Each structure stands twice: as structure tokens, then as C-alpha cells.
Known about the structure:
This protein is of the alpha+beta class. 38% of the residues lie in helices and 11% in strands.
Amino acid sequence: MPFSRDQHTGKALQFPFGVANMAQTNGGQTFDARKFESVPIWIGVGAADSSDADVPDEWDQYIGPDRLDRALAFTQALQTLGADVKLLVFPNTGHALTDAMRGAGCDYLAAAVASDQSAPSASAT
């Protein structure tokens, strides 16, 4: 998650739990929240992907006990940061990658690329 501190304890969150040490792990580049806001993010999860035995417990306090809860929490956290995020919950689907998921993900990426290509460049006057 793009947070530098735990919202509950105030403790610095190191990668992969947060971005507090991003400069040390990213060639000196710090996390740039403004640039992050412009990255389109698509999240897909099965509505029945709710087994808490399938995910590590260490993340529970931050984003929930199962993949569905985590997808919802991650989406909400990204929206709070102003990120361009879309969540699709696929009915009657557990922890799987279905043709419907692949199609929706590819459609989202194609639309994002088309939108990016039609946007004026930063150097345009």
C-alpha cells in the first residue's frame, strides 16, 4: 500500500507493507503520490474468494482476512489517496482466473492505453 506510516500505531511501514523506505529500495527515488494518482489501477476478485486460510494473517489488521475483503480495502485505500482505481467483483467465482476476468482486465488496459495515447503530451503547447 502506498502509506509510509501505520494508521493505527504511527510506525513506519517498510516495503512491501508501505513506502517509508522507497528511496532505499528504488535507486534513490522516493514515492511520488502525485504521479501515483495518474496510474490507472484495475482490481478483479471473485465474490467467493473468501477463504481466510489462503492468505497470510500478518496483513489482516491492515486489509482484512481474505482476498475479497482485501480487494475492497485496497480499493478504498487507493481511492482515499486519489488513485484512478476500478474494482470488479466477479459473481460465482472463487480464487481463479476466468475468461471473464481476463477479458475485463484486457478491456480495461486497452481503454487506459487508448486514453493515454489521446491525451496531449506534457510538451505540447
